[in-house]
Amino acid sequence: MKDKIIQIERQSLTVGICANLFMAFSGWATFYLSGSEALLLDGNFSFILFLSSIAALKISAIKSNRSNTFPFGLFVSEALYSLLKGLLIGGVLLTAITANITKIGKFIQGEELTMLKTGPILIYSIAMVVTCFGLSLFYHYQNKRTGNNSSMLTTDKASSLVDGCMSAGTGAALVLIGYITPASSFNFLLYIGDAIMVLILATIMVKQPITIVKEAFIELAGGRLQNVDAYEDIESIITQQLSQQETMAHNVFISKTGSSYLVVLSFTTEEIDRKGITIFAHIKQSLSTQLTAKYPHIDVELVLS
Q1: 283 HSE (CA, 13 A, CB side)
Q2: Which part of the chain is CATH 3.30.70.1350?
Q3: What are residue 254's DSSP bridge partners?
Q4: Phi, psi (5° rounding) for residue 47?
Q5: What strands, in cross-sheet order, belong to the sheet with 251-257?
Q6: Measured between alpha carbons, how far is 1 from 146 in angstroms, rounded to an integer?
Q7: Which of the two residues, 131 and 164, has the higher pLDDT score?
Q8: Residue 162's closest CA among 9, 20, 298, 262?
Q9: Among residues 73, 138, 214, 291, which one has the fewest Cβ atoms lying within 10 Å of its Cβ?
Q10: Over 90: is that where the pLDDT of 211 sits?
Q11: Residue in 64, 59, 105 with CA at minimum distance from that of residue 82
Q12: How far apart are CA 178 and CA 189, in angstroms?
């Protein structure tokens, strides 16, 4: 199962690398033809996804390698990948916001700006929306094949979905701007409509990098598993197993680092003396077997409290 997950991840990420590179060059080319800053943001966002997919491909190959130095593998690299990706996306958005606020400021001050050319935008938008949503669905299908055990495919699915929404929103708005005449009271949109659209999109998207960075930081710091569904699922398996042995854990801690899970069950010395050490060895073995069937990268540890 572990080898199958790695193979699926590598196939998916390879497709993502090609798709995101195509979208990045398409965004830059359309920006050159139209002069729209919104499409420059779109192209830069796709390029960030392209670079991160290359890194993810390498991480997928090494994350499960265990050694004396890293006895639990290199799953921390997945969390680090998500953290850096969130920071990069945040940096792109911050740069775009700053640049376009400056553009709007120049227009207000009366500086002459180039009028947008919306001709090539419709074709670009249709192509990008199809590519982005298709890639997001592909990541969803591939992650489902892994039992939803790939944190990188989960992150990339969300990123591609946001990229598709950004392309759809940008394209629709800029095509509509193309129908505005210079004599219209909305003629200012012919010059700064793309800048306004960038600010709107950046505001909508800002939650994504914040969420990615927050969850990655919690994983890197060894915090409690944030996925409520996964936590309750693992907890119910533990509760069922312990009830069968007529015992109870003093404390249950479940954490996740990348696609690796750690379950720590605390028992009092009185409970261990009452049931006997053999029972707890059996509990650990049974839990490991049962949980590994659903979560291939999981470690179960029993400790005294």
Answers
A1: 28
A2: 228-304
A3: 263
A4: -70, -35
A5: 251-257, 260-267, 298-304
A6: 8
A7: 131
A8: 20
A9: 214
A10: no
A11: 59
A12: 9
Task: Note the pLDDT tens digit of each residue in 49-60.
Answer: 888 888 888 887
Which token pair is 41? 């943001």
Residue among 277, 66, 101 at smallest CA distance from 202: 101
Tokens matching residue 253: 């801690």
Beta bridge partners of 304: 267
What are the start and end residues of each CATH 1.20.1510.10 domain in the chain? 2-220
Third-level CATH fold of 228-304: Alpha-Beta Plaits (3.30.70)
Whether the pTM exceeds 0.90: the reply is: no
| Residue 240, H or E segment | helix 228-244
Q: Which of 26, 177, 206 is nearest to 116 (CA)?
A: 177
d(CA 230, CA 226) in angstroms, rounded, equals 8
CA dist., res. 38 & res. 186, Å (int): 19
Residue 22: CB atoms within 10 A of its CB come to 15
Rounded to whole angstroms, how far apart are CA atoms 31 and 26? 8
CB contact at 8 A, 263 and 238: yes
Q: Kind and range of the H or E element at 295? A: none
Q: pLDDT at position 63, please?
A: 78
Report the alpha-carbon distance of residue 138 to residue 122 in Å, rounded.
24
Determine the longest span between alpha carbons in the chain, in angstroms.
88
How confident is the model over 115-132, as pLDDT tens digits?
A: 777 677 778 888 888 888
CA terminus-to-terminus distance, the chain: 34
> What CATH code is assigned to 2-220?
1.20.1510.10
User: 251-257 and 260-267 as β-strands: parallel, antiparallel, unpaired?
Assistant: antiparallel
- Integer CA distances (angstroms), 181 to 37, 104, 171, 177, 197, in order: 20, 20, 18, 9, 19
Q: Which two tokens stand for residue 140?
A: 């969803």
